[in-house]
Structure prediction request, 320 residues.
Amino acid sequence: MTARPPEARISPLYRALGDRLFAGVVLVLCLLIIGIVVLIGWQLAANGSRAFAAFGLLGFLGGSTWDPVAHIFGAWPFIVGTLITSVAALVLAFFPALAVAIFAVEYAPRWLGSVLQYALELLASLPSVIYGLWGLLVLAPVLRQIEQAMVGWAVEREADWLVQILGAPIGIGMANAVIVLSVMVIPYAASLAKDSIALVPNTQREAAYGLGATKWEVIRMAVLPYARGGILAGVILGFTRALGETMAVVMVIGNNKNLPFTVFGSATTIPSAIVNEFGEAQGLQLSSLLALGFILFILSGAMNLLAAWIVKRMSVEGRL
Prediction:
């Protein structure tokens, strides 16, 4: 008995509707994801509209006073604290993340590269409260000694302007939050950079070696330009991770709502403000917190769109 061909065993109903049904399910799931994102943004904007109406969009964004007793709410200190800590953490994490990625792909033996990959995945999967405890119990005492030495040096030389910039040497504040966030950003940026570098065709390296290039010249001229889109996209996605971090920042930043912020002094961010006050907020204060959430939503979405644009723009097939 001869076996029937595979297409003969497929039911006529599946041949008629199978592909259309699958395409329809995929389309519905994609639209569902888009709808959830739009619904989140709409809910935040709608519930925060009372704050925007009370103070005006520019008044709320540029206001520097956050006083629940007087019912005055301005988002500027939270925006400044969020941007400063996130950008500083990104700058601090960029070169270590890139160095780890280059070493794991170009220099390390395969077994060591696997160990590094596992370590990066472990760091990325750690709960943020663990990073907060590390910053609070381990990093803060060390920073306090360093900060006290720097402030003491400035006081001895009567550099009052420098003392005002450095702030109170308590170990908990802006510097602690930046270091903790940079450690949290490194696994994301390094993993994506590692994957981008690993995807560079070997022909790129062989061509550079054939021209007499050294190992570093091969990496600098043949590997990094090819992988630049993925590297920068990973950096920006790590930046969005820093923008939205909550628990670790709350534990180490000091949660000071007043401008100006100092290098070592306490500060605050949008996520830390929301988590600190949301449980007791009512009325206009609750609407202001939801308006802060909408601002953070817009910032995160803009950073993700920027990352997608960079990948497209800076890829090998792109225009740059």
The longest strand covers residues 66-67. The chain has a mean pLDDT of 84. DSSP finds 13 helices and two strands in the chain. The two ends are 62 Å apart (CA to CA).
